[in-house]
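Q: Entry one of two.
A:
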Amino acid sequence: MDIIFYHPSFSAGTWIDGLQQRLPEARIRRWQPGDDAPADYALVRQPPVEMLKGRRLKGVFALGAGVDDILGQLREHPDMLAAGVPLFRLEDTGMGRQMQEYAVYHVLGWFRRFPEYQKQKNAALWRDLPGRGRSDFSIGLLGAGVLGSNVAQSLLAWGFPVSSWSRTPKQTDGVTCYHGPQQLGEFLATTRVLINLLPNTPQTVGILNRALLSQLKPGAFLINLARGAHLVETDLLAALEAGEISAAALDVFHQEPLPADHPFWSHADIAITPHNAAVTLPDEAMDFIARSIRQCESGEMPSGRVDISRGY
């Protein structure tokens, strides 16, 4: 069994050594330009087209939860991946817990009004602010996949009402689930804190726009943990200025790193992190990949297969 590896920034040696320990029977190598030797599996992030083109692979594993980089390449180069070759994403591998931490931190901060108290501290102002009720501090998740379900469960544990919206019907214990375009408005109208975990597809680009944000409960909050392409940045600034949105926490942006002159840097009600809300954890990811490859070798279909036609 031959495995090729490519990532623009990960240490190839660390991953090859770790996977070799988990799959001692495999021959694992770092792919380099000109390498057209046989391979059964490819582990990739932003792979060059020539790495995959023409190969009869048993599977391709994207080294992250998102696969929009590969799907974008496929739209431009449809022959990059042979028909029928399954593409898998990392379903969780530790990213779910990181997303939970990020969401819980911001939701509890806004619920307890800690950012407002920090502003008062900076102004040397001692003033008690009215408390908020949990029943009115409803959380809505755009996206009800594995990561969305994890985040939902972590917020349910704090007693908040939680709902989700997805393109197709989903069921999550304790969560009010909406689906399809016809239920999106109803979902938004019930939401005080909107958390975006949608996949990046042509249909979801720009979904976080002024029209959508204006349908949330007045003075709502926004967390974007998915992709910068989902957010119309000027619309968020306008919604903050109009009071439709009270604050936002953003981990992803149209241009990364965020330019030094971007208005988000100086906006008092926007929290920024450098696209690290959830990072790939090598040990957990290698465990998942090794287990999945063994399933493929035994004729089973691992979880995390991407529906290329849908984009996730």
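Q: Entry two of two.
A:
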Amino acid sequence: MRSFIFGSRLGHLIIDLDQTAELLRQALNFTAHIAFRDGIILFIAKNPQISYIVEKTAKECKEFAHTRSWKLGTFSNAEFEFGAVTRLPDLCIFLTTKESVTHQHIAVAHAAKMCIPTIGIVDTNCNPNLITYPVPGNDDSPCAIELYCRLFKDAIRRGKICKKLLESVDNQ
């Protein structure tokens, strides 16, 4: 995370917001493109304090959320886990990339192994190397998570609306 840190003050690391703004813009643009192409988007967060926000956002977008413990083989052995041929998500959005204070969420590595693009809100204690679109920011505050959820929800809605408009023009 060194490249995303602006400095420190009173023992707290300060994230460079210029980089955050640019990387968040790229992540939102990619999210809108996935939604435009009718891709499956999976919101992932383990923190119980924000699980309601994440699940509500996914439901409003008509997408999917996973806020519980991650089972090994969810991506890599999906047919066996679910008993049917399963389509994997086209994008995983990690609102928290940590499963606990010391461990990275195991789904980050699983998504990387399965070549599923990822967007992750990465705090100063996270490792952004396996995230396709890292967004440096605070992943601890429910207010920050609400902001990220609202931004991703708007990007998904805009992508889907653009798809509908394009289809209606093509049909005329």
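A: Comment on entry two: The two ends are 50 Å apart (CA to CA). The mean pLDDT is 88.
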